[in-house]
Amino acid sequence: xxxxxQSPATLSVSxxxxxxxxxxxxxxxxSNLAWYQQKPGQAPRLLIYGASTRATGIPARFxxxxxxxxFTLTISSLQSEDFAVYYCQQYNNWPRFTFGxxxxxxxx
Amino acid sequence: QVQLVESGGxxxxxxxxxxxxxxxxxxxFSNYGMHWVRQAPGKGLEWVAFIQYDGSNxxxxxxxxxxxxxxxxxxxxxVYLQMNSLRAEDTAVYxxxxxxxxxxxxxxxxxxxxxxxxxVTVSS
Lengths: 108, 124
Prior knowledge:
The complex is a heterodimer of chains A (108) and B (124). Chain A is mainly beta and 108 residues long.
């Protein structure tokens, strides 16, 4: 099973600043990596798939990069609505799809 | 627009059963595979099950295989999760989620649309 880890567990950022979130896979997942945003009491929302492709309607301030075992989600200039928990998910090891534990982005 | 609406959650005793439903609209349901994903209170996300667009193939996470059954009725645009022999560790919000692959075998394996979730609590 591909074990996903995320760092940091919590990231404190001021509005307008850049946020960089990391995700690591225990074995290569190629580019089969997605990122989701979840706000309290809401369902997750797809942000990025294929490691770097933004989903429909996702603002350009969200970008993804990486391949193999190391991935990054960057939010170029944090808006108030971006404070949330972010999960990475691998879909290379089919059908054992696994998520990381999440990174909480909160207000500094 | 795509809408997924889950129902059927509630409180059930250990060893009991529950059937969840997810009604889909806003897309051609019969063309897409569907997943169930769960989230225990205060915890992360766990993929639970997948059913192919035509219902011909189904897959499960190891912890629910043999206890849970995913099914679908394309005439009703609905996917189901029958949960038997429930345990305390099955307590979670259960989300249905759409797979992006159209009319293909298996799944792409990520989730482009999610429902709002339904809470299942297993407790005596």
